[in-house]
Design a protein that fits this description.
Length: 317
């Protein structure tokens, strides 16, 4: 329905909107760190700024002067890109992904009708993406759980990998499985590091963190920070850590992906704290029957049948 020559589809942390896991096919793969850095540094059609409609076209936003886009004039122009369609997948529970479609010369630019078609797709795609994320909170036995260890990458200021811990490759392969015989791409590291640069430049205020599902119900949190040392801050390397998400981080994501209301999320927090029905009712100023009704609604949304199963999914076993 909408033709394109290259694309990138990126899952994001619903709170920070920082990219975590991508599927992409672009001719500038060797320049991927630069493309990600420039994307986060550009405020033209930035996914975090798209509202209604959730679609923006580069040629339209720049009135045909594509050079207004930093990522275009520093990278995409060399690959003959003539237009970019940007689509954000966001709902009341967070930002779940964004999609970019590129067209190159001599093809036509994206039309208003194509933009409208993409805008119509945004809501059902967002709902589907969120529900897919909810299915990752499956309970695994201790034997099935992946081994955990220190996962650290050190990137140069221009996002080139300088060094990493031995287990890093194992996790990167799980995040973005590479083609046979190729090294895994540290996409989540590039994204959180690029967000750190965007924060330093005042482009965006969200923290440089992203939660990402690795495999078998395991969620991990990536964070980026500057290393200490001589010279200016912008000359120092960036360290990216990847560690198992905390209980609070995981429960928050579980509630968002499951589409729980604020009241239902509050109830989950009380259950996580170990409170029984009577204490939950007292703290929430509800009757015990109303608490049970809320629980039934939560069970239906999370495909669970008991408090124990609910907490096992939310907390990870």
């Amino acid at each position: 329905m909408v033709a394109f020559d290259a694309h990138a589809w990126l899952l994001t942390d619903p709170v920070t909107a920082v990219g975590a896991a991508p599927v992409a096919d672009v001719p500038w793969m060797r320049e991927l760190p630069a493309q990600i850095r420039l994307k986060y540094a550009s405020d033209v059609n930035r996914w975090t700024a798209l509202g209604e409609p959730p679609v923006a076209l580069l040629a339209e936003a720049t009135a045909g002067n594509l050079a207004q886009s930093l990522v275009w004039r520093d990278l995409l122009v060399r690959y003959g890109v003539s237009d970019v369609a940007s689509i954000v997948l966001r709902d009341g529970f967070g930002c779940w992904a964004f999609l970019e479609l590129w067209r190159t010369d001599p093809g036509p630019r994206f039309s208003e009708a194509e933009a409208a078609f993409l805008a119509d797709l945004a809501q059902p795609l967002t709902r589907a993406m969120r529900r897919c994320q909810a299915t990752t909170f499956a309970v695994r036995t201790a034997r099935d759980r992946p081994r955990l260890g220190p996962v650290v990458l050190v990137l140069s200021p221009d996002l080139r990998v300088r060094t990493q811990t031995p287990q890093t490759q194992e996790y990167l392969r799980a995040l973005v499985p590479p083609a046979e015989g190729r090294q895994p791409i540290p996409a989540v590291a590039y994204n959180v590091a690029a967000q750190l640069l965007a924060v330093e430049d005042g482009i965006d205020a969200n923290p440089a963190t992203a939660r990402v599902h690795v495999s078998d119900g395991l969620w991990m949190t990536a964070r980026a920070a500057r290393l200490d040392g001589p010279g200016s801050a912008r000359e120092r390397d960036i360290v990216v850590t990847l560690e198992q998400s905390s209980a609070a981080e995981r429960v928050d994501l579980f509630c968002r992906a499951s589409g729980l209301t604020d009241r239902e999320r509050e109830l989950i927090d009380h259950l996580v704290a170990g409170q029984d029905t009577r204490e939950v009712a007292r703290r929430m100023f509800l009757s015990e029957n109303t608490v049970q009704d809320h629980l039934k609604a939560i069970f239906a949304k999370t495909a669970t049948r008991s408090r124990r199963a609910l907490l096992s999914q939310a907390l990870g076993g």
